[in-house]
Amino acid sequence: MSTPMGFFCYFSILAPLLFLSIDHVGGSSNQLGSFVDLNREGLDFVIPGNMSRLARSCLQKSSYFCLRRYYIGPRHYRLRGTAGDTRPTALERRVYFNMIRRVFTAFNIFSHYAVDRFSGGCCTYHYETYKIFGHAFGLTPSQYFSRITDFSSQGKQIIFLQGFYIPSMCLNFVQLLSFGKGNLVVQNSAGQGHPFAIPTADNMVHVFHPHYLVDYLTFDWFKAHVICVEKPLICRQFPLSVN
Questions:
Q1: C-alpha closest to that of 157 among 131, 139, 184, 134
Q2: In a domain, 178, yes or no
Q3: Alpha helical stretches, state H, 66-110
Q4: Where in the sequence is the domain holding 116, given as residue range(s)?
Q5: Highest mean pLDDT out of 4-13, 102-111, 190-199
Q6: What are phi and psi of 172, to 5 degrees?
Q7: I want to staple 201 with a disulfide (CB 3.0 to 4.6 A). Which of 63, 123, 178, 219 is the partner?
Q8: What are phi and psi of 219, to 5 degrees?
Q9: Among 31-35, 66-70, 74-78, 106-110, whose mean pLDDT is lowest?
């Protein structure tokens, strides 16, 4: 990855870690619940690791990434008087179950619900995701399914980023990130102004300057270095926008 001059000092800091699992780095994390409700829309991802409940749950399924959901917000913009006030019908529930069950492992849409452990990892969590972020906005099961499985790069940029700050390294290790439509929001008060790092399964650590996140942390980059390393079929179906 190309980086602006004057930023290489962070790579020298990381040099001893390039062949170590980032999970060996200690520290404690604040409680990481849902992403805050923002005027954004996109694919929410979790980076596996040991620094949060979601990251640990993801690590049990993949060493690369987990797709959490397709997020639409904020919540108070949800439709009222139509889909927003009703639950999906039994038919809609069955339709979405049947669609997501076929592909949830292919796209790493893993459930962290205990109840789903007894059914192969599907599909109570997936249904709840559709109900909250799909049906409540008037989307049919097919329409929400098409969004959560759309890994095309066009029209997607980094719009949300949350990291775990390690003071001894002056780095924010990314735990949650989102690509889609909207303005970039960084939720990381402790490490404000410090670079962000994404560890990958090959024991490399990729560092991004906080002033150049939109330019360098693109969905193409994330696909090439994270998603398609584990799931090459995704990049065959959704090629990178630039080679």
A1: 184
A2: no
A3: 90-103
A4: 77-148
A5: 102-111
A6: -100, 115
A7: 63
A8: -65, -35
A9: 31-35
Residues contacting 55, CB < 8 A, separation 6+: 32, 46, 47, 48, 49, 175
For 239: left if phi > 0, alpha if psi spans -120 to 50, otherwise beta; the answer is beta
In which element (H, E) is residue 148 found? helix 141-148
Q: Domain for residue 213, yes or no?
A: no
pLDDT digits over 29-64, tens only?
A: 332 334 454 578 999 999 999 888 899 999 999 999
**Is 124 in contact with 113 (CB distance < 8 Å)?**
yes
Contacts for 178 with CB less than 8 Å, ≥ 6 apart: 35, 40, 42, 43, 44, 45, 71, 158, 159, 160, 161
32 inside domain: no
Cα 35 vs. chain centroid, distance in angstroms? 10
Q: What is the pTM of this model?
A: 0.82
Number of structural domains in the chain = 1
